[in-house]
Amino acid sequence: MQAIVDALKATITRTNATDLQASFARDAGRFSSFSARFDDLLMDFSKCAVNDEIMALLEKLFTEGAVAEKREEMFAGKAINFTENRAVLHTALRNRSNTPVLVDGKDVMPDVNAVLDAMGKFADGVRSGTLNGATGKKITDVVNIGIGGSDLGPVMATLALAPFHDGPRAHFVSNVDGAHIADTLKLLDAETTLFIVASKTFTTIETMTNAATARAFIADKLGEEAVKCHFAAVSTALEKVAAFGIESDRIFGFWDWVGGRYSIWSAIGLPLMLAIGPENFGGFLDGAHAMDKHFRKAPVRENLPALLGLIGFYHRNVLDYPSRAILPYDQRLSRFPAYLQQLDMESNGKGVTIDGTPVEGQSGPVVWGEPGTNGQHAFYQLIHQGTSVIPAEFMVAAKGFEPNLRHQHELLIANCLAQSAALMKGRTLEEAKAQLLKSGMDEAKADHIAPHRVFSGNRPSITFVYDQLTPFALGRLIALYEHRVFVEGVLFRINSFDQWGVELGKELATGLLPVVQGKQGTDGQDASTAGLVKALLG
Ligand code: F6P
């Protein structure tokens, strides 16, 4: 592997691959050589520092990294999350072909289908008004209480699929900050509100605390007996849910082989299903399944997740770019960067390889972003002229859902394409100076100002284009990024499916609670923590 990384570095230098302007000037066919399509989803990576030699080396990396073999292990239910001895089978949740998927010799598909069926019946009941609140009123508002993977997927997807939203209003409470639930409860009528407590473990302190507040809200307004009509739960820990007092026919299970950040396809997707209906939720699963099949079968040069993962690895570990910006030109994907932040950084933010040795080179990059065009008026300055190169990933639909606002969609597309072109083309000193002289500036002043208006260009980006953000398209897009994270994780030689790094802070918070409550002194705390406690408690 290291030999291929070294060969890539040498090839970049020898072929001057980072000079994108020269690459485009040399080769009129560059777009078709370095783009790939899966149905209406097009991935243009011609504005990255690639050429045929580099692509050949990346393909070699895919082979030598045994990505295909690991991919089959994942799909086959092998316990590739070995630190927790778990299979990684979010793909089974959207296995619309319904072929058997074995975990420890047992086909999981009957259980997957049974939960999906139960979710569908529950969602239909709530949406149609046959499953109502305790006073008989129809549910108008659903509040999902969860955090991390039990929040970000449903929030992101519900917003993304707003044009399909014909069910109750959706709200999401995640933060333990009481402000979050307080501000949400202010909007709600207890009689018409359903709470979904979503937690894989059903121990997460934020979720349990908010759930208790929500329970008290219902019990106060409608009486203790009403709780059963206003709560549902989603978890792998079914006994813990029962202990909370949620009726068994309102508990939707999933399994330890579904990682939290990969769980939107499971019962964690219930708020989405309530919003858009079971049929559209099915379309969402179909899209992801289509991407799964593509990932398993398409040759590397046509395989979108493989290409995205290889280029991601190349950017991070060969070109040493520390972060990547996710820039959807799709307002409804405004939470997609935050969703990918968990998916990518919780998966690939690791420092130890599968052998227990330190990672050589780098593992996952910092992932961040905002929708365009908003970001253009905020942080794009740094992407264009800052001292770090930040690969950008743009995405835009050919069609919006507002035919009467076509002009706005045209502006959106024009801006998206303009940004990737500007990043690639840049502006030379001569061009900058000529522009200033043309505007009437004198020679001396133009010489002084022009350097500030130079753009180096040659800044990499990938652009995704799709027809329209339907449930199918969204499912496909998320699955694409999931598999990208997988490919990169295999190449980094890490376990992408555990998250031990989040534990220490949780343990320390538990220990600090009595200190913050004033029940215990600061003995044993470090001087900074003790000083901060004192400042807060007075
Ligand atoms: O603390 C991190 C984490 O475990 C995530 O991996 C997970 O998505 C989130 O917390 C919520 O966990 P749970 O669904 O068990 O409440």
From TrEMBL:
It holds the Pfam family PGI. Keywords: Cytoplasm, Gluconeogenesis, Glycolysis, Isomerase. Gene3D superfamilies: 1.10.1390.10, Glucose-6-phosphate isomerase like protein, domain 1 (3.40.50.10490). Catalyzes the reversible isomerization of glucose-6-phosphate to fructose-6-phosphate. It catalyses: alpha-D-glucose 6-phosphate = beta-D-fructose 6-phosphate. It is an enzyme of class 5 (isomerase). InterPro entries: G6P_Isomerase, G6P_Isomerase_C, Phosphoglucose_isomerase_CS, SIS_dom_sf, SIS_PGI_1, SIS_PGI_2. Its EC number is 5.3.1.9. Belongs to the GPI family. The active site is at 346 (proton donor), 377, 506. The gene is pgi. Pathway: Carbohydrate biosynthesis; gluconeogenesis; Carbohydrate degradation; glycolysis; D-glyceraldehyde 3-phosphate and glycerone phosphate from D-glucose: step 2/4. This is Glucose-6-phosphate isomerase. It is found in: Cytoplasm. NCBIfam families: PRK00179.1. GO terms for molecular function: glucose-6-phosphate isomerase activity.
